[in-house]
Amino acid sequence: MEIVPLTGSLGAEIIGADIKDAAQFEEIKRAFAQYSVITLRAQAITPQDHLAFARRGGEINVKRFFKALDGYPEVAVVLKEPDQTGAIGEVWHTDHAYDQVPALGSILHAIETPTYGGDTVFCSMGAAYDALSDRFKALLEGLSAWHSSRHVFGAGQAKSDANQTGRVGNTEKATQDALHPVVIQHPLSGRKGLFVNPEFTTQIEGLFKAESDAILNMLYEHCQKPEFQCRVKWQAGDVTMWDNRATWHKAINDYHGHRRYMHRVTVEGVPLSAASA
Ligand code: SIN
Predict the structure, then answer these.
(1) Residue of 107, 262, 267 to mutate, ligand 1, most atoms within 8 A of C-beta
(2) Does the C-beta of 263 come closer than 6 Å to ligand 1?
(3) I want to staple 40 with a disulfide (CB 3.0 to 4.6 A). Which of 87, 175, 182, 239 is the partner?
(4) Is residue 264 annotated as part of the catalytic site, yes or no?
C-alpha cells in the first residue's frame, strides 16, 4: 500500500489497501497512529466488511442519536438528500466528547457522493496545542471542561433539519455530561493535545462562565487556523477513519440539491488522562 500525507499537520490517503484483508491491519493501524486521519481509497465493501474492520480496532459503540442502517444497529446512516438543507456534523466537533469514555474514533464509508463538495475537514488538536505559548499551555494544563449531549441532541434542540427528517432521534437519551482534562495525553501516541470543541464543550470547571467562554472562544479561533487542518475529498468507496482524541472534524455542507450517503461505525475508546507537565 502507498501512504501519502495530506498536510504537514495530519491526514494521509492510503492507496492500494484492502480493509477486508486482516493481514494489512497492523500497517493501517500504524498509519492511523501517525496521521490521526486516514482515507483508504476505493474499498469494495459491505456493511459486514465495514464492521469486521472496525472490530479489529476495538468494540463498537452503537450511536444513540443517528438513524441506523436497516438490519445493522451498529452502522449509523449519515445522509443528506437533495431536498434537505442541513447536514449532519456541520459544526466543528469531536464525536462522543460527552461520554465518560469518549470514542476512539469513527470509520466513515462513502456510498454515494455529490458531484462536487461534501468534503470533510479535520483539525489536529496536537498541532493546535503545540503552537500555543508555554505560559498559556501551563495555564490550560490544570483545567478540566464539561461536555454535554443535551444541548445538541436533547428534546427541542433541532439545530438543523436533520431532526425533523428522522436522521437524528432518541432525544430522550441525550442525558450525557462528562468532565475531561482540557489538555490530554493521547492514549496511543502520548502527544499532548487540546480536548475541547465548539459543539459539545459547555464550560471549563471552576471558572465563571464569562472567563470560560473567553478561553474557549480564543482556543476555537486558534484551532481553526488552516495550518492545523486537512481536507478529505470523497469518492464513492472511500473509507476514512479518524481519531477523536486527536482531531476535530466538520462536514462541509456545500452541495445542496445533491445526495450524499455514508455509513459510519464508531469504535470505543479508553478513559482520557490529563497531560502531565
Ligand atoms: C460526522 O460528523 O460524523 C459526519 C462527517 C461527514 O459526514 O463528513
Answers:
(1) 262
(2) no
(3) 239
(4) yes
DSSP tag of 96:
T
Tell me whether residue 93 is one of the annotated catalytic residues: yes
Write down the pLDDT at residue 86.
87
Tell me: the pLDDT tens digits for 220-259?
999 999 999 999 999 999 999 999 999 999 999 999 999 9
Q: What's the pLDDT tens digit per position in 161-215?
A: 555 455 666 677 777 789 999 999 999 899 999 999 999 999 999 999 999 999 9
Q: Cα separations (Å) of 57 from 70, 137, 142? A: 23, 31, 31
Categorise residue 127: left if φ over 0, alpha if ψ from -120 to 50, beta otherwise: alpha
Q: Looking up cell 496545542, which residue turns up?
A: 129
**Residue 249 is a catalytic residue:** yes
CATH number of 2-269: 3.60.130.10
Pocket lining: 266 vs ligand 1, CB cutoff 6 Å: no
Domain extents in the chain: 2-269
Max distance between CA atoms of the chain, in angstroms, equals 52
What pLDDT does 210 receive? 97
Q: What is the pLDDT of residue 154?
A: 72
- The closest of 96, 108, 125 to 268, measured between CA atoms, is 96
**What are the residues whose beta carbons fall under 8 Å from the beta carbon of 124, sequence distance 6 or more?**
9, 10, 36, 193, 228, 229, 246, 247
- Please pick, among 93, 147, 167, 191, the residue that the annotation labels catalytic: 93
Work out whether the CA dihedral 125, 129, 132, 137 comes out positive or negative.
positive
